[in-house]
Every structure is written in structure tokens, then in C-alpha cells.
Amino acid sequence: MHPLEQLRDGALREIESAPEEHALEAARVKYLGKSGCISSWGEQMKTLNKDEKPIVGKLLNEVRSAVTAAIEARAQTFRAQKESKTLAGIDISLPGTPHEIGSLHPLTQILERSIQIFRRMGFALADGPDIEDEWHCFDALNTPPDHPARNEQDTFYLPGGPLLRTHTSTVQIRAMQAAPPPMRVIAPGACYRRDEIDATHSAQFHQIEGLYVDESVSVADLKGALEFFMRELFGPGTEVQFRPHYFPFTEPSLEIYVKSKALRGGEQWIEVAGSGIVHPAVFEAVNKARGDKAYDPEKWSGYAFGLGMDRLAMILFDIPDIRFFAQNDLRFLHQFV
Ligand code: DAH
Q: Which band of pLDDT confidence, cut at 50, 70 and 90, is reported for residue 35?
């Protein structure tokens, strides 16, 4: 037996009987380390003659791979032992930690659907602050100082004069101040009123305001756009009704109703929006603020509307009480996953 083969057999025995990782590492250093037995055989190769060199060289390679493989195999055994020890301490039959699947709030869902519909009709998004001044909320919208909406019983006034906007119509004014006609925008957002809170009234609710200003815009345009919107949202057979009404900032003014079986009342007409043809006084107020005649009421006309977003969501998802939206009750929210 060649001394290298003896070396190999000894090494393999030692490796296989290594009781734990430290002993194995010691064996690795002893045989494969820089100044280990196998490495020093490599040094000795230089002293061999031509005939011996290839034979011993081949043998040396075989011994080195055999020892390397044995060390790896033994190390693998140790790793497996360690792993099964850890696993033995874990009860894999225990239930895991469940992850709740979230979803968008129903109001967000309505908002996204509505924006999508209006975008297809060419409306761009606009916005304005929730904390407003009286001018944007009332004066510019042709609402005189003695109008009941301006009463402290209806509006949240903040110290020093500002208020929480009572409708999103404020954004009509801001959009027109910012850019000349033609104008086609929607503005979704929160509104605030000191209402008695019940199933259909909340101190904070949401609207989508719309404004379209161009040359010769008529009630027919308004009806076409809003009917299209309602049918896209609620389905093609949805019946829509426009009833005469009064708003200071539109003339004529119309309330929009849709027929629905939602809200537990049986089939009924439900009011979903206010709308109308923009009052010339609104254009004049904007012109005055802009310091030009960009919104010349002789040249431009427009329609505007304010959709009740909460109401739309209540109809679409058949939610009987507006207070559910803000209660954060998971039993409610889970239904919209
Ligand atoms: N701002 C009105 C409200 O909150 C709704 C409304 C009516 C908006 C007519 C409009 C409109 O833009 O033209 O009751």
C-alpha cells in the first residue's frame, strides 16, 4: 500500500468518527490545511523523479478529493442533526398567524369608479382646501350674507373667520380663478355641516363637484352627462329624473334622482345630486377676483353639479346607514373585500 493510501484510510476513519464539529474542523486542518499532511505531500512532489510524478500526482488528487468529500458528508450529517433538533421543539400542527386581507373603503371604491367614468368624458381632477374662507364658500357662489346656509347653526366656523367648507362648490371658484375657459373638471372631497346626525346625515360627508364651461353649454349637456354617469355606475337600465330646484349659484337649478330599491325603502326615487346652469353672477365674481373678463357670461356658459358620494355608495352597496362609513367596524368593512 502506498503511504498516501495509508494516509487516506487514516483520514477517512478519523473524519467518520469525528464526534462533533470541532473535531471535524481539527481533522480538516490536519489533512487539508496549508501545512496539513496532504499539502505537504504536494511539496514533496518536486523531489520525485519523472516516472513517479504522474502516478503519485494522480493518487494525491484522488486522496485529496476523497478526504474533501468525506469532510463535507460528515459536516452535512452534523447540520441535519442540528436541524432536526430545532424542529423537534416546534409543533408544526399549531395554527399559523393569520394575515387579514384588507380592501378599499367603500367610499374610496365609489370615488375611483366615479373618477374613471368622468375621465372618459374628458373631466380633469381639481381640488381645494377643506378649510375655506367665506368668499369661496358663499359670496363667490352668489349666496348672500343672510342666506340660511351661512348661519352658525349650519356651518362650522373657525376662530378668526375661516370655515369648514359646506360643499365642494368652492373648487368651482378656485378652478376658474386658476385657469380661463374652456373648463371641464371634477373635484371630489369632504364637506362639513352642523347637521343633526342620523342614518342619512353626518357632520362630515363627501361630494364630487363637477364644472363644465364652454361656449353654448345647455341643460341638455348636463342631462346627457349625468344620465350617462348614473347608468355607468348603477347599470344601463337605471332611471334618472331631473326635478326643478333652487340653488343661488345656478339658474335653472335641478335636483337629480335615481330610482333604486336600495336603502330598505322598497323601490323609490333617491336624491343624489344638485346641479344646474352656472349663474352669471358666479362668472362675474370670478372675473372680479381674476381682474379680467375671462369668464364673460355673454360668451361662456356652463353646467355644474354636486354629487353626494356617500349617497351613491349607499345605493350601490345597499348600505342603510351613513354612520357605518366612519365607524371603522371590521364586520362592516369586511363586506367590501
Ligand atoms: N353645492 C350643492 C350642495 O351642497 C350641490 C350643488 C348644486 C352643486 C348645484 C352644484 C350645483 O355644482 O350646480 O347642496
A: confident
Q: What is the predicted pLDDT for the residue at 337?
A: 83
143 lines ligand 1 (CB under 6 A): no
Report d(CA 281, CA 140) in Å as an integer.
8
Nearest-CA residue for atom 7 of ligand 1:
274
Which pLDDT tens digit goes with each residue over 156-168? 999 999 999 999 9
Q: From 222, 275, 277, 310, give the residue whose CB has the most ligand 1 atoms within 8 Å, as the site to mutate.
A: 275
Alpha-carbon distance values, 78 to 5, 123, 132 (Å): 26, 68, 72
What grid cell was written down for 330? 371590521
- If you take atom 8 of ligand 1, which residue's CA is the nearest one? 306
Fill in the amino acid letter for 238: T
Distance from the alpha carbon of residue 319 to the mean position of ligand 1, in angstroms: 23
The answer to whether residue 149 scores a pLDDT higher than 90 is: no
Three-state DSSP class for residue 303: strand
